[in-house]
Design goal:
With about 325 residues, the chain is mainly beta. The chain contains 3 helices and 22 strands. The chain has a 12-stranded mixed sheet. Strands 1-19-20-21-18-17-16-14 form an 8-stranded antiparallel sheet, with helices on one face.
């Protein structure tokens, strides 16, 4: 399963990474046709039924997941099941999510505050994308028996990675997606088998009897969206092209108190900043760079007895700039 879905359960490994990339000319403008394809890709996963099996690859790790997605007058419903390693199943009803962990018999519920789960990986509208990336058509390829339009998104500066998308030419549904650093593929999602616009049996989108047994423990992960400037923290100097999306207070897995959360984005890449008080009884945080897998980098620092953690799909230099720009309001 995509680590974007299960990021709260990830273990972070220490890593040192070198950074090198290729940038688009600042003056280059994305063609209208390329931007139209991008818009079609952003809308398609919310308008079509689809089911299939996709593979996630990063750092030599391969993980296979099965997805069923249905859209109708009631909105969107979805089931994603990890087929490798520890079983994990996510059910989504519009923005309401339930994550089932059968081995521990735990259920985590959460309201999705931001869309970004393969193949629904583009925000909408796409206002900032052309400003920060040069979008171009780079040919046609056949992927999983679908004729696909290939798009390349080249970063306009060193603050972000590049992307490649393979889009079903008929429906616009992404069949394959990759995050790239120059010529290096950092992570990749690809459907090994896919059916689009087939009828979906509603029973496939509901937990079975085993998953609704009485002895399961349910934890509700609450998110409280705050008004602009309500937190006592701010990110003073965001890298060029990034803007604040939202301020929140959240209770995360294995956290006893609410955590302050500020999310920023460049229109495609997203960075979350978590600020939490350091407990006197807890071990002192270890500052520095950490990583989960693929494009996600993590930077930790301390300030005024608080731990600041910046997490996002951006290069190390960018994640550090954002983490170091967090200050307490006067």
């Amino acid at each position: 399963m995509s680590r974007r879905i299960f990021a709260p359960f990830s273990l972070f490994l220490l890593l040192a990474v070198s950074f090198q990339t290729v940038f688009a000319q600042e003056s280059s403008r994305s063609t209208e046709n390329a931007l139209d394809w991008l818009k079609k890709m952003a809308e398609a996963p919310r308008r079509h039924n689809y089911s299939g099996t996709f593979v996630y690859y990063a750092n030599g790790h391969v993980e296979t997941s099965r997805i069923v997605h249905k859209t109708d007058q009631a909105g969107e419903r979805e089931r994603i099941e990890v087929l490798d390693g520890s079983p994990r199943i996510v059910f989504r009803d519009n923005d309401e999510m339930q994550c089932y962990l059968p081995e521990s018999k735990k259920i985590y519920t959460e309201k999705r505050w931001f869309r970004k789960f393969f193949p629904d990986i583009l925000p909408f509208p796409l206002d900032d994308v052309d400003r920060n990336y040069y979008v171009k058509e780079t040919g046609r390829e056949r992927i999983s028996d679908y004729e696909c339009q290939v798009l390349s998104l080249m970063p306009r500066d060193p603050f972000r990675y590049g992307y490649q998308f393979w889009i079903d030419a008929k429906t616009g549904v992404p069949v394959k997606a990759a995050v790239v650093n120059g010529n290096q593929i950092i992570e990749q999602f690809a459907f090994a088998q896919l059916e689009i616009d087939k009828e979906i049996d509603p029973s496939q989108l509901k937990p079975n009897q085993i998953l609704v047994a009485d002895d399961w423990q349910t934890t509700n992960l609450l998110t409280s969206i705050l008004k602009e400037g309500e937190l006592q923290w701010q990110i003073k100097n965001l890298p060029d092209g990034f803007r604040k999306l939202v301020e929140m207070k959240r209770n995360l897995t294995e956290k006893t108190a609410l955590v302050d959360h500020i999310a920023v984005s460049d229109g495609l890449a997203t960075v979350s900043v978590f600020i939490e008080p350091i407990s006197k009884d807890a071990p002192s945080p270890v500052p520095g760079f950490f990583t989960s897998r693929g494009a996600i980098n993590i930077y930790v620092r301390t300030l005024d007895d608080h731990k600041i953690t910046a997490v996002g799909e951006v290069p190390l230099e960018t994640i550090k700039l954002i983490g170091d720009s967090v200050v307490k309001k006067n």
